[in-house]
Amino acid sequence: MGVTNFNKELSATQISCEESFNVRLSLTAEPDITANPVDIVLILDRSGSMSGSAIANLKNGAKAFVDIIYNATGGTNGQIAGGTHIGIVSFADIATQNQPLITDINDLKTSIDGLSAGGSTNHADAFTKATELLQNSTANQQFMIMFTDGFTTAGGNPNPIATTAKAQGIIIYSIGLSGNGGIDEQALEDWASDPSSSYVVITPDDTELEEIFEEIAENISKPGATNIVITDKVLPCFAVTALSSPTKGTATMLDSNTVEWKIDELGVNGSEGAVFEFTVRRTGDCDGETEVNESIEYSDTEGNVVNFPSPTLLVVCDVPIVEPCPEPVDYTAIGCLDTIVFDAGNIEMQSIGRIVKVDFTLKSVCPNKRVAVAIILNEVDGEGNEHKRGMKTLTIPAHTQNSCRDILVRCVKFVLPEDLDVFDTTGMCNERNLRVRVLANYIDNNFECCE
Known about the structure:
Helices cover 16% and strands 40% of the residues. It has helices at 53-72, 105-113, 123-134, 159-167, 185-191, 196-199, 209-221; strands at 2-10, 14-16, 20-30, 38-45, 85-91, 95-102, 141-148, 171-177, 200-203, 225-234, 238-243, 250-255, 258-266, 272-282, 288-291, 293-299, 312-316, 321-322, 353-365, 371-380, 386-396, 405-417, 433-442. The strands form six sheets. It has a six-stranded mixed β-sheet, with helices on both faces. Strands 1-3-14-11 form a four-stranded antiparallel β-sheet. The chain is elongated. The protein has 451 residues and is α/β, with parallel strands linked by helices. The model has no long low-confidence stretch (mean pLDDT 88).
């Protein structure tokens, strides 16, 4: 059956500029159906909107599907071999079990050719009838191939029935024809197995139906996967910083942005999965909602088609708010003078001291709201008493991002004279114990006095 499931996931949906996150690649492959039989139900829409070329092309696609499964199992004398069966359910106002799980391809094709379009669209009854056909299946794996060209217009909600089927281990493919008046793409994704990128196919052109059915039949009938190579490259603003050991195969880092995962064989003798994780860190200029992938390529000897999803995450960078340095006074020295007189203005320098710079981060500041901040600096003596050394007040401008974000405030400066050392007023550069308090509140709010 080849590669039946694959996915790419991120360990976080949001990171700060300096945070790392993990990327998780997963892959599942199934063995050849000649040794591991499957049972398949084709669920075919025959509602009124399918009249004309749509139902003709649907019939061609369904019959091509039957032929591929027949050949893949080594069938002879018109009988599917190896214990694999196919059943047919068609639906309009209600669903009909046109064929139970059988091996006779002539009977299957006769039922397909006998379909005629008319009526509304009852997806719930279609899933119910297909589930009933698979209830007594003893095959290694069960499949439903749901084809439809429209919205649900009759019957109940099909979602719980499809969800129950998947919980029982049934794999569901969703095929949608959108060119006959539109289709509920979200419903197709809800019905199908995960990830939807692997199990949902939508086309506006009914001439493509035969090719779609053939591709799904080939995926189901492929014998596992060998000589797998997955090359994953992240965007230049990210860097790969660490690799974990894959559950199967080996992984190497080709450069700071690219990893390669190789597996000799997967799912050749039985259903088998593999997982690989690596750690990524933001190192460049990307902010906001961004993809992580630049590209991801898959290849194997069997030619399985694997299109990994490209997940996104929100990069929220701190916005540094820096208290400006004092304005300098410019002075020009003219000629070869031994003495230069410089007037720095009215600045009283009472003693030697140090400059204390305070940084802090305001967490989760909402958009379009200014913040008032007070920074209080005290010195603590040997008995725990606090001595005031200064206070600054700042207004932090509002940001305009779509969500709350952290605001980095840097370089708030205090002068700490040496003659105020609470331990020793005669020494220089002694160790001094300081205590900082920061108070913050929004300036902007929607409060209004009652009348």
